[in-house]
Every structure is written in C-alpha cells, then in structure tokens.
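In the previous chapter we treated chains in isolation. Here, by contrast, the input contains two separate entities that must be folded as one system, with a combined length of 710 residues.
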Amino acid sequence: MTLKEAEGIAERPAEVARTRASQRKLVWWAFKKHRLALVSAWLLAGMLVVIALCEFVAPFDDRHRDSAYTTAPPQVLKLWSDSGFGLHVDGYTSEQDPRSLRITYEANPEDRIDVGFFVKGEEYELFGFIPMDRHLLGPQDPGDPMYLWGTTTDGQDLLSQVVYATRVSASVGIIGVLLAFLLGIVLGAVSGYFGGWIDNAVQRVIELIMSVPSIPLWLGLAAALPAQMGPVGRYFIITTILALVAWTGLAREVRGRFLALRSEEFVTSAMLDGSSHTRIMFRHMLPSFSSHIIAALSLSIPGMILAETALSWLGMGLRPPAVSWGVQLQDASKWSVLSGAPWLLIPGLCVVLVVLAFNFVGDGLRDAADPYKH
Amino acid sequence: MSDKQPLLEIEDLHVRFPLRRNLLGRPTVEVHAVSGVDLTLYKGETLGLVGESGCGKTTLGRTIVGAQKATSGSLRYDGRDLTALSRREQGASRRRIRMVFQDPFSSLNPRMNLRQIIGDPLVATGEARGAELEDRIAEMMRRVGLSPDYMDRYPHSFSGGQRQRVNIARALIVGPELVVADEPVSALDVSVRAQILNLLRELQAEFGLTYLFISHDLSVVENLADRVAVMYFGRVVELAETGALYEHPRHPYTEALMSAVPIPDPSLKGRQGRILLPDELPDPSDPPPGCAFARRCAYAEDRCRTGEIPLADGARCVRSGELDLEGIVEAESSRP
C-alpha cells in the first residue's frame, strides 16, 4: 500500500465498490476464482434440487418392486432404431441357468419400450401436499421395465433408489452438521466468552466425548435404539447421535476464537455501548469469523455423510425400507453379487462425488474467507 | 477554581488483578494496578493523566468508564457511587461517561460498516431506529469531519486519523458529559495528530464536555489539559495546573519525565540533562513501603522509605517543599 492510498480515501469507482463491499461480497468475489469449487457448488445445487423434487425426478416410487427383473443390467437410452425415431430403451430377454438358477438378462432390440419426459406414472405428493402423477422421465406405459441404472437384487430400479437415497443421506449430513454446529457454536462461544468455571465444565465434557473412539460410540448408541422403531424416528435419532459426537471439534475452534477476540478493543467498546452478552457474542464477535464457520461447515458435511453410510452399511444405522447410500451398499457387499452386477456400486460413486464436492466447496470457501490476505 | 462543580470524584480507588488463586478461588498473588487514587474532575475541564506504561493510567480510565471493576474505593458521579450500581443501572451512567480508545485499528469491528459502528450504542439500547437513527449518525459524522457518504464503508478503507474520528463519533453519539480519551492520538502520524486534537477541542467547546485525557506524551497534554495528574506505580504522585506543573514540577518523578521530552530546538540541545532513572519499577505484586519511587530517586532519603506518604499540596513527596526541580517551560521561554 502506498502512502497515498494509506492517507486518502478511495474515490475511483472500482475502489469505492471495494470499500462498500461487505464481507459476504468480498468472499463471493474470491470464491468465484476457484474453478473447481464453483463447479462443485453447482453440482451440490443440483443435488439440492434432486432432494427437493425427488418423487418427480425418480422414474419409480421407492417402494416399486418388479420381481420379474431382479439384478437386471442397466439399459441404454436410444434415439433411433429400425422401427423409427423416438426416445426408447430395449426390453430384456431373460434366461435362467437350470443348475445355478441364476437369471441372466440380454437387451432385446425387438422389444422397444418408448420413453418420454413428463410421463404419467405412479401417484405421489410433491413436497408432501401437491398430488401429482407425472415423472421427469419414464416409460410411456407405466408397467414397462425401464431401468437405466439396472435393478437391485430385489428388483427395484436402482436409479430411483439412488435418488431417494440421496435425499436421506445428504439430508442426514446437512441436518446433522447444522445440529452439531448449533451446539458447537453456542457452547464454544459461551465457554470462550465467559471463561472461568463454565469454560472448565464445557472443556471437560468435550475431552470426555473426544476420548471415546467414535465408531464404537455410534454403534453403542445406535444399538440402544428399539428394533421396532419406524424409519422416520430412526432417521432423526441417528442424525442426532451423529451430531452429538461431532460438535466437539467446532466448539473448541469457536472457543479459541472467542478467547482471542475477547481482548480486542471493539469488544470492550461494544460492551460499553450497552450491548447484552448475547448481542456481543453473536452480533459483534461471531461475524468476525462467520466465513470460517461456513467453510468448516461444508468441510464437515462429508464426515457426517460417511459416518451415516458406514453406520447403515454395518446395519446399525438406517434399515430397509429406508433407503440411504449405506443401506444400498449393503447389497454390494457380497462379492458373488457384485461380480455379476457391478452397477450396484453406483451409490458408492455418489458418496465419493458428493463428499468430494463438499470438500472442494469447503476449500474454496476457506481460501476465500480471508479477503484481506492478498 | 472555587466556582467549579465537581463532576466525578474518585476516592481511594484500588484495582487489583489476581495472578494466582487458591483452591477456593481467593486470590493469593495480586498485581496492584491502581492503588489508592483520589482525584476530582470538574465540569468542563480537561484533566491530563500522564505516566509511563504500566503505571495504571489506562486501568484507571477503564475503571471510570466501567470496562473494569474496581476492587475497592468509590467513583462518585453526580452524587452517585458508580461502583455500587448494578449492571443495569450502570447502563445509564455509561451514556454519560464514554471512552475513546487508543488503537484505531482494533477498536473498530472490521466486519461492520460505519453506520453499524457509530450507531451501535443507539441500536444496542433501542434508543433510536429507522430514519431517526440514520439522521443522528449522519449528523454525528458531519460533526467529527466525516462525510455521511462514507456510512456504508468498512473500516478497512480508512486511515488511522479517520478511524479515530469514527471512534470519537461513536463515543459522542449518545451525548455524554465525560469522555475518557485513552491515548487517542498516540497511534497516529504527527501530521494527523494535531487535527484530531483540534477536533477534540472543538467538540469540547460545542458540547461542553469534560475530558480525562490519558497520555504518555507530555507535549500533547501540555497543549490540551487544564490540569495534569502524574501517575507512578498506581498512584497519583503529582497534581497541578498545567502551567505550574511544567514550569515547576514538585515531584522528582515528574522532573525525570520532563527531562525525557525531546526539545526540537537544536541550539538548546544539551542544555538540559536527561535524567536517567536507575533500576526498574518495583514489583507490582509486592509493593515496597514508603514512596514507590524512592529506589530510583536521586533525592531520596531514609524517611522516604517508611510509612505511607500522602498527596500533600499537590505532590506525593516528603521533600517537595525543599527541592527546586527543573521543568521544561523555562527552556522554551529562554529561546532568543
């Protein structure tokens, strides 16, 4: 910075824009430069749309089961065949091995299944209250088999299942992290701001939770759930369990920040302005590192998603009929099944993709969070 | 002097910081930051408070505005003892006693724009909102020499001098009577310093403010203050009218402070010897008996090292009557 810049006030339009830019804008400008993070952010935005409209996006209902086609391979969408132009897939011909009883499927170009956008299908309620029967993509005749990502061992459409699982797994991650952050921020802030015995108590609790290995702790807590509990109740309890274990790291970080900020003169000055403790903590101090919190938030969602996946895969988390990526991957855990049906690993790919996307977005946000470093 | 009304009367004020506590939370080792200060501020005056770093002047200022709890003693403001008030009652007195901070960088929240910073005292207590809030902020900004156009800008776009104007605006927006200015210009360039001092002087005349001006810079204090209190080791060691103090300091510590003021005129260089104090400050967790300055004082006698020495006739020194100490005003007046 030159002496002139240090002395005077910015008057050129670009500089004026910068002086008026709030923290949020400065972070956004910096974030936009991070290509990978931007692409990931779009991917996650798309995922949120899928979560919100999942009944519409999925060709079939999550209870749809077609016992005639178990472990059927993925079909290919075609635009052109001998019988003319039009979006369609080929039907299956099946053959059962008389000795192993194993059914193998072949694509049958003779059996044309017309596919269309916004087709009539199973009825559902969008957002839980708008009755609809249209699906984004589906067979023109609702009874026809259209399994773009193949089917599961139970004869369920894998694509539809993955769409429904995305809603469950991603929302466990997001809701769980929000819960954990609420706890972490409030307890961390109180601990760092007031200090003394409150600080001592909170820190000891954190140490206690941190000293217990997390997988056995999840397992123990999840095992204590009644077996006959419904899928919705189970979902919320599992989310809460994950959150109760995850808040500690953030609480420590927030406490450290509050300890450091407490001696800043602007905090003293806020106190002298007559602000209440709550206002000082959450209006004056927390915004100083809110961008770091958002970055930490998106960086900890993957951990939560992986935790749910692991827990469900082990059979201690969500259970069928609930579908989550972890529940789906249970199917793929037997080599004998997997060797014949590699498409059952698609939910695993989704986990990798979403976890990477959250990590890139988190990285981008973290780098952008400090606009003054350049 | 006699027609002056006392605004704030400080009586035997002690502030101690616990260094170590025992199991029951009782302090076992304490630092005495302010130990027995008696001081009266009169309406409309500027009282300069000088002393070296660590002498307790900032702690005294922070105790007056309520940022620091007093260990014992009283702060009587308009007849009411501030130390006895609850947190809620203190709220009202906080609007009458305000503070301007030393560091123009750490005292402004980097995440808030000027509207939020200057308006904060009004918003926090719900005193003003909407258009009225806006008007009062704009009015205050104009008074301190900032264009209201800058309202939406963030502190990172301002220089030190302008930030200090923001600090002053925030202090004055609630209409205080007493302003504790803790080294308000020591972090500023010399060129900007005079502007801020002039602004403080103008605002004092305009709003009838009383200042407690804390500084280690004797020339700034001489310029602004009506009376000066010299602090050493948590105590006021000398209190006098500014002119008298600079011409005839009556405490050896004041003389030593004055000898450290650089003289801009090279022809006078060397005329006045710099008094170099031997030794360090005493240990503030274990204060010596008698005069705290005795160990470093060239004039000290045995009687200085025993008993409590009161502030008598404006100086806390048993030998103040017999010594002829050197100030700095005569050096300036002897210029050709």
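The radius of gyration of chain B is 21 Å. The first helix of chain B runs from residue 57 to 65. Compare these points with the single-chain example from earlier in the chapter.
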